[in-house]
Design goal:
It is built from 16 helices and 17 strands. The protein has helices spanning 2-24, 63-70, 72-89, 112-127, 173-191, 228-237, 241-261, 280-291, 310-322, 339-344, 354-357, 365-379, 392-401, 417-426, 430-436, 444-447, and strands at residues 37-39, 42-44, 53-60, 97-98, 102-108, 130-132, 135-137, 141-146, 159-160, 194-203, 208-218, 267-271, 296-302, 326-332, 349-352, 383-387, 405-407. It has an eight-stranded mixed barrel, surrounded by five helices. Strands 8-3-5-4-9 form a five-stranded antiparallel β-sheet, with helices on one face.
C-alpha cells in the first residue's frame, strides 16, 4: 500500500506540474487598438471604413487543413460557395475579399448593435453545413472588425474573389486520394455502407454488461479496407466531423432503442471530437436528439479535448451533464493529464488507455500507475473503465485494484447490432469469457477503432 500511495502522489505531482505549464502557455494574439471593444462575444474595433461602413474579417479555421489535405481547388470552390451564400443574405457595400483562410466583407453599420446583427447574420450563414464536391463541410468561424491600420487583415496575397472562377491548377495525387476517400464515404453514408459496431463493457462487480461503446464501421462496396481512425482524423481536420457525429448519434439512438425493446437497458457511448465541444449549435443538436429518446446515451471525449477552448467546452459539457448525458474521459494517460482539467469536467467515467493495460501483468510500473489512476478517479467520484483487456490475468488484477468496468477482446469484439443482441442474450459472465479466449485475434490494435 505504501508503494501505491507513493505512486498516486507522484502521479498527482506530475499532473499538477503539467497543468501549471499548460496554464503558463498562451497563444500569441495581435495587438489590440485602444478603442477595441467586445460586443456579444464578437471582437469589435472602433474604426470605420467610410461613413456608415464596417470592414469585418471572418476567419475559417479549417480552410488551411482543407487546402493542405484536399487541394487548392477544393478550398477555392468551397470559399466560392460560402461567398455566394453570404451575398444572398447580407447587404455588401463592396465585393468580398478572400485570403487563404478568411473572407473580408464591407458591411453597412453605423452603430455597434447594427454591426453585431450583420456579423451574426454572416456567422450564421458560415456556420451552416455547406456541401461541395459531394462532401458536407461545417467550418468554425471567428469574426473581427478591421481598423484602417490593417489589424486582423489578410496577407498581401488577399484577392478579390470571382465565385465563378476556380483555380486552374490540378490537385496533387495525394489530395485527390483524400478527396476521393471523403466523397466515397459520404456516398456510402447515404447508401447504407456505413454502420456502427458496439463493444460491450463488463461491470466487474455485477458481472453483467451494462454499457457499450459505438464504433464506426465502413464496408465499402468495392471491398477496399478503410482505417476508420484515419478517416475520422481526416474529417476532424477538414470540418466534416460535425455531420458525421450527428449521423452517429442518430444511428446510436436508433440502435439503442432496438436494444431497449429487446429488454436490454444499455448505456451506449458515442465518441465526440474535441473540436465540437465548444460549438453551442452542436450542443443544441445533441440535446435535441437525446431529448427525443428514452434510451440512455453517453459521450466519450479524449482527455485533451477541451484544452483549446476550455470555458466554452466545459459550459457545454455542463449542459450535457444536467440533461442526464453520461460523460466519459477516453484514453486517459495517453496525453498530458491535468488534475485541474479532471476536477472541472463533469465526467462520471474515466477510461484508462489500453497501453497501460496491455502490459499490466508483465510490467513493474504499469500496475502502480493503473492502481493510482483508479484511486484518483474514485476520489473524484468517477467510475473507471480499463480499455484493451485481452487476458484473464489482467482482468483478475483489475478486479483486485478496484476497477469498475472492463472493455476488450476478452469480453467481446465490436459487434453489429444484431450480433450484440445475440451476445447479450447468451452472456453468462465467466462462462462467456472462457469461450471468448478461444477466439483468434487478428491484428488486435488495428481492429479496435
Amino acid at each position: 500500500m505504501l508503494a501505491v500511495s507513493s505512486a498516486a502522489a507522484a502521479l498527482a505531482a506530475i499532473a499538477a506540474g503539467i497543468a501549471l505549464l499548460r496554464l503558463g502557455k498562451s497563444r500569441s494574439a495581435p495587438a489590440r487598438s485602444a478603442d477595441r471593444i467586445e460586443v456579444g462575444g464578437i471582437k469589435v474595433g472602433g474604426s470605420e471604413v467610410g461613413a456608415g461602413l464596417r470592414c469585418v474579417r471572418f476567419e475559417l479555421a479549417e480552410l488551411a487543413a482543407i487546402r493542405n489535405l484536399l487541394g487548392e481547388q477544393v478550398a477555392a470552390g468551397l470559399l466560392a460557395c460560402l461567398t455566394r451564400k453570404i451575398a444572398e443574405r447580407a447587404a455588401l457595400a463592396k465585393p468580398a475579399v478572400v485570403g487563404d483562410s478568411a473572407i473580408t466583407l464591407t458591411l453597412h453599420g453605423n452603430a455597434a448593435a447594427q454591426t453585431e446583427r450583420q456579423i451574426s447574420l454572416v456567422c450564421a450563414a458560415l456556420a451552416e453545413t455547406t456541401t461541395y464536391a459531394g462532401i458536407a463541410f461545417s467550418l468554425t468561424t471567428r469574426s473581427a472588425i478591421l481598423g484602417p491600420d490593417g489589424l486582423w487583415h489578410d496577407s498581401a496575397s488577399a484577392r478579390l474573389l470571382d465565385p465563378a472562377a476556380y483555380p486552374a491548377d490540378r490537385p496533387e495525387s495525394r489530395d485527390l486520394n483524400r478527396l476521393d476517400l471523403l466523397q466515397k464515404f459520404w456516398v456510402g453514408l447515404e447508401n447504407g455502407e456505413v454502420a456502427l459496431a458496439y463493444q460491450p463493457k463488463l461491470d466487474l462487480r455485477a458481472n453483467t454488461i451494462s454499457s457499450a461503446e459505438a464504433l464506426l464501421r465502413w464496408s465499402r462496396a468495392d471491398g477496399v479496407a478503410v482505417n476508420t481512425g484515419d478517416l475520422i482524423t481526416l474529417c476532424e481536420q477538414t470540418g466534416t466531423i460535425k455531420q458525421l457525429t450527428r449521423w452517429t448519434l442518430g444511428k446510436a439512438i436508433a440502435d439503442n432503442e432496438q436494444f431497449r425493446a429487446a429488454g436490454h437497458d444499455l448505456l451506449v457511448f458515442v465518441n465526440v471530437s474535441g473540436g465540437l465541444l465548444a460549438d453551442a449549435a452542436f450542443a443544441d443538436d445533441v440535446l435535441a436528439l437525446i431529448a427525443q429518446t428514452p434510451s440512455r446515451i453517453g459521450i466519450e471525449i479524449t482527455e485533451t479535448a477541451v484544452i483549446a477552448d476550455p470555458e466554452l467546452a466545459i459550459a457545454n459539457l455542463d449542459r450535457f451533464a444536467q440533461a442526464g448525458i453520461a460523460i466519459a474521459i477516453d484514453d486517459f494517460g495517453a496525453g498530458l493529464s491535468s488534475l485541474e482539467y479532471l476536477q472541472r469536467l463533469p465526467a462520471s467515467e474515466l477510461k484508462i488507455d489500453q497501453t497501460f493495460i496491455a502490459k499490466l501483468s508483465s510490467s513493474n510500473r504499469n500496475p502502480l500507475i493503473t492502481r493510482a489512476t483508479i484511486d484518483l478517479a474514485h476520489a473524484l467520484e468517477m467510475r473507471v473503465t480499463a480499455e484493451g483487456v485481452d487476458d484473464q490475468l489482467s482482468l483478475a488484477l483489475l478486479k483486485v485494484m478496484g476497477c469498475d468496468l472492463a472493455q476488450g477482446y476478452l469480453i467481446s469484439h465490436p459487434l453489429a447490432p444484431n450480433k450484440l443482441l445475440s451476445f447479450l442474450a447468451t452472456f453468462s459472465g465467466a462462462g462467456s469469457l472462457a469461450k471468448s479466449l478461444a477466439k483468434p485475434l487478428v491484428n488486435p490494435a488495428a481492429a479496435r477503432r
